[in-house]
Amino acid sequence: MSTLFDKLGGQQGIEQLVDEFYKRIMADSTLSPYFAHTDMDRQRRQQTAFFVEIFDGPKQYKGRAMETTHKGLNLTPQHFEAIAKHLREAAAVRGVSPEDTNTAVARVATLKDAILNK
Ligand code: HEM
User: Fold this and answer.
1) Which of 15, 17, 83 to probe ligand 1 with, by most ligand atoms within 8 A of CB?
2) Ligand 1 pocket, 14 CB below 6 A?
3) DSSP conformation letters of 70-88
4) Class of the domain covering 4-115
5) 1 C-alpha to center of ligand 1: Å?
6) CA of residue 52 to ligand 1 center, whole Å
7) Which of 70, 71, 89, 117 to mutate to test the pocket of ligand 1 (most atoms within 8 A of CB)?
8) pLDDT single digits (tens) 1-18
């Protein structure tokens, strides 16, 4: 049985998904200012490692917890919805099936309260 990780194309597929994801985030003026001082190569590496883990691939994320990382940013549900939309679009461009996309987005949605610090 193949895992979500496999269905997303493994390590390389998730790397490419993350590239598409941040391309969209950085083109969105409601989100890009939050990353004004961020090293985006590092951010893409961290996000790839994080997605690999939460999408059932090997454990490799060594970054901060979601609560800690996003604390003080005062993020709203609108920010979260925008991010989810960009993830959906990135997945569509990468040829991920609608079913696998829904699974991935649902997985990310379980982190919503932690990321919004609610
Ligand atoms: C799908 C939801 C999200 C996930 C899975 C996620 C995941 C992550 C991860 C893994 C990191 C790296 C932490 C580290 O390196 O220790 C991070 C950092 C960060 N995230 Fe998110 N995030 C999400 C939503 C958001 C949203 C909505 C915003 C705001 C627009 C945001 C803004 C940031 C910022 C500013 C950083 C820190 C970058 C830096 O260190 O300079 N994130 N996030």
Assistant:
1) 83
2) no
3) HTTS---HHHHHHHHHHHH
4) mainly alpha
5) 31
6) 15
7) 70
8) 699 999 999 999 999 999
Q: Does the pTM exceed 0.90?
A: yes
Q: Does residue 88 contact residue 105 with C-beta atoms inside 8 Å? A: yes
Tens-digit pLDDT profile for residues 21-53: 999 999 999 999 999 999 999 999 999 999 999
Ligand 1 neighbourhood includes 43 CB (under 6 angstroms): yes
d(CA 15, CA 49): 9
What is the residue type of 60? Q
**CA 69–ligand 1 middle distance (angstroms):** 7
Residue partners of 86: CB distance under 8 A and separation at least 6: 21, 24, 25, 28, 31
